[in-house]
Amino acid sequence: MFITMKYEPVIGLEIHVQMDTETKMFCSCPVEFGNEPNTNVCPVCLGMPGSLPVINKRAVEYAIRASLALNCKVHEKSIFARKNYFYPDLPKGYQISQYEMPLATNGYIEIEGKNGRKKVRIRRLHIEEDAGKNIHEGDKSFVDLNRAGTPLMEIVTEPDIRSAEEARIFLETLRNIMRYTGVSKADMEKGQLRCDINVSVKPVDSEEFGTRVEIKNVNSFRFVQKAIEYEVERQINIIESGGKVEQETRTFDPSTGKTYTMRRKEEAEDYRYFPDPDLLPLIVKREWIEEIKKNMPELPHQRFERLMREYGLGEYEAKVLTNIKELGDFFEEAVKHYNEPKGIVNWLINDLQGLLRDKGIPIEESPVKPEHLGELVKLIKEGTISSKIGKEVIKEMVETGKSPSTIVEEKGLKQIADESAIEGIVKEVLEKFPAEVERFKNGEEKLIGFFVGQVMKATKGKANPKIVNSLIRKLTGVS
Amino acid sequence: MSIDIETVRKVANLARLDLKEEELEILSSQMADIVDFVNQLAELDTENVEPYIHTVSETPMREDKKGETLEREKALMNAPEREKGFFVVPRIVEI
Ligand SMILES: [Zn+2]
């Protein structure tokens, strides 16, 4: 037995999600990216004395919506607390967060793990504010406070995750829920979703967890998986060689794929949380929670099931269309224009998506509109063009953004469905290959493909294959 | 109640206060006095009294609408050091 198989990782995640609001959590500064440094700031988010925080109602609404989507209990009363620490990107010297009485607790989400469906419990979800950004250069650090005060949700799971892969699947599922509910763009690369990982290992048959290590701020799904894989192996090696895992905070370096000590237990921060005297309790009325529940957008697992039920898609296709929300939206829009879901999903996933990926264009900026994809499938289905020509047309569509019928018209790609026109060409082909015709007549059935190919070559792929087939059989007398 | 020098040192460090040895002495006795003073509250019987946070009042909320921001010049006005629109601090060592 492999050593690694004697152990089981125990993983819990802490995820920070930036909410997609217009303004910050406690002041009316805009939440925008890419602005000149320190231009989206005001006395509140600069932490100037005498300024007072006022809560953004939309952010609370989003946090409630997310809590409900994560099956949490939303508390009618929650309390804001100060988390005290010194860092240059935190001008007040404390972060406003929630501690003892968070907005929501006791939720779960279901993920599709390796061994089937499983529940990962959510311990809590609370509201807090983001810090600013630092750029380090030479012996100086440059501080930009545009991001300071951006509304965040912190979501904490129970240690229910049992493998690096499961952690990645959990995060992808969570990201999709955030996007479907519209509370966040949740793009990890842009820092809109950030993840701290708690990892320990235990013998497979043991109930007791080992000492846990925290890995801070891992910023892609792939790195989360890699960081955990490395860390689990490191901990197993320590235990196997008779050592003890130390409780500490580590960082993951993507360039080496390893984790490194950042801070030991004795150096752990003491945040001295206390209720923020500037903010009264946050009260959310039952009716408000009910209203948010009632207007909940469709969630990923609901769409997944609906795609299979309503359009008869397979699990794989439904999953692809669910995982990228915009792709699913594109599909449903295209189907509205031409009701041929199977054809549309194939052309979307197998062709359009690849062509766009090659050009680095996300689906939501696709030059090919959903109605045009529907039209393309229609042209093929109705026999106006062959699917081989369709492949050319879609390339052209991506290049020019023109509709498929325009392209077919301009390039004269219409399939020849006129039997008499095709008959002449079939005759020519048969005359050109008398030996093959003889063999075909003697039962070499597979030669039909050869003849069809020749006809297609002669017509530049425009002959209707069905007609070609039946003509070959008719003219050779082979049924 | 007494507060030892180590505790004073720890609290001072958390508040980033650089204290001299003799100040530590003075503060340890002063802090003990403060804690004793506040501890008088603990003598009250609060068995059936709701904590203060359980008041009927609630925090007001604002609509998610953009408002005035501060001119950058004003935002940076009190910064000991600045450059290209940034606040500048000695290089931060990630801890
Ligand atoms: Zn502000």
Specify the biggest β-sheet of chain A.
9 strands, mixed
Helix segment tally of chain A: 15
> Which cofactor or ligand species appear?
zinc ion
Per DSSP, what share of the residues of chain A sits in E-state strands of 2 or more residues?
Answer: 15-25%
Query: Which runs of chain A of at least 5 residues are low in confidence (pLDDT < 50)?
Result: none
Query: How many β-strand runs of chain B?
Result: 3
Strand order of the largest sheet of chain A: 3-7-8-11-1-12-13-14-15
Q: How would a crystallographer describe the biggest sheet of chain B? A: 2 strands, antiparallel
Taking the alpha carbons of the first and last residues of chain A, their distance comes to: 61 Å
The helix/strand series of chain B, from N terminus to C terminus, equals HHEHEE
Can you tell me about this structure?
The complex is a heterodimer of chains A (479) and B (95). By secondary structure, chain A is of the alpha+beta class. Chain A has 15 helices and 17 strands. Chain A has helices spanning 57-69, 164-180, 221-240, 286-294, 300-311, 315-323, 325-337, 341-359, 370-381, 387-400, 404-411, 419-432, 434-441, 447-458, 465-476; strands at 7-18, 55-56, 73-74, 77-78, 80-84, 94-98, 104-113, 116-129, 133-137, 140-144, 151-157, 193-203, 213-218, 248-253, 258-264, 274-275, 282-283. By secondary structure, chain B is of the alpha+beta class. Helix content of chain B is 36%, strand content 9%. In chain B, strand 2 and strand 3 (86-90) form a beta hairpin. In chain B, helix 1 (5-14) crosses helix 2 (21-39). The longest helix of chain B has 19 residues, at 21-39. Chain B starts with a helix and ends in a 5-residue tail after the last strand. The mean pLDDT of chain B is 88. The interface between A and B is large, with 53 and 35 residues. Strand 2 (55-56) of chain A pairs parallel with strand 1 (61-62) of chain B, so a sheet runs across the interface. The structure holds zinc ion.
